[in-house]
Amino acid sequence: MKTKVQQVEEVIKTGTTKEELAEIHRIINQFESVIKREVTATEVAEIDKVVRGHEGKLYAEIQKIVDDNRGKAGSLIRVLQQAQGIVGYLPKPVMATVSYDLKVPLSEVYGVASFYHFFSMKPKGKYVLQVCLGTSCYVKGGDKIIDRLKKDWNLEPGGITPDGRFSLEIVRCLGACGLSPVMAVGAEIHGRVKPSKLNEILDSYN
Ligand code: FES
User: Fold this and answer.
1) At which of 62, 81, 115 does a domain end?
2) How far apart are alpha carbons 140 and 7 in whole angstroms?
3) Cα dihedral angle (30, 99, 78, 72), rounded to 10 degrees?
4) Which of 115, 144, 163 is a domain's end point?
5) How many Å lie between the centroid of ligand 1 and the Cα of residue 201?
6) Could you tell me which residue, 41 or 196, shows the higher pLDDT?
7) What's the pLDDT at 155?
């Protein structure tokens, strides 16, 4: 499986295809009904107040990333990827800051962050669980793993456990169909996962 950095590098290198652009524009149009304009300096000052309060260092780091990438090809994707690397995900104030500093409409920042699956607008857990619901895994009971995570861990797809230890994503194929049903915990793949063994597996991650 390609790492997120490799995926981003590939997108930057190969550019965005026509189909991908069409999809990005579709997403942007959705957002445009809500956000019809760029972020104003006043709003950024508000964001600044909140972010600078306890995370001023983080804000300064994001501004440095923007400065280092300004005017370069693929700058928006690269800036978002590096900002996510620092914060762990892309919260609204970070996207608004990137929009203002990079002079890119907020709708476009949202569109790009929503389109590429390596970006997340929600916080991630210390360990990201990826449960496969591709055909092979689904047939072998991948959905039972999801049920068990909901029941025992109060964890929904896209959610995070209250202690921040695990977050959950659904994926289509992890490339290990012979081991269905498959679940990844971070970079580690677990095959033939039995729901009854799930707690034992997760308890081994602290
Ligand atoms: S379908 Fe689950 S790993 Fe391929």
Assistant:
1) 115
2) 29
3) 120
4) 115
5) 19
6) 196
7) 93
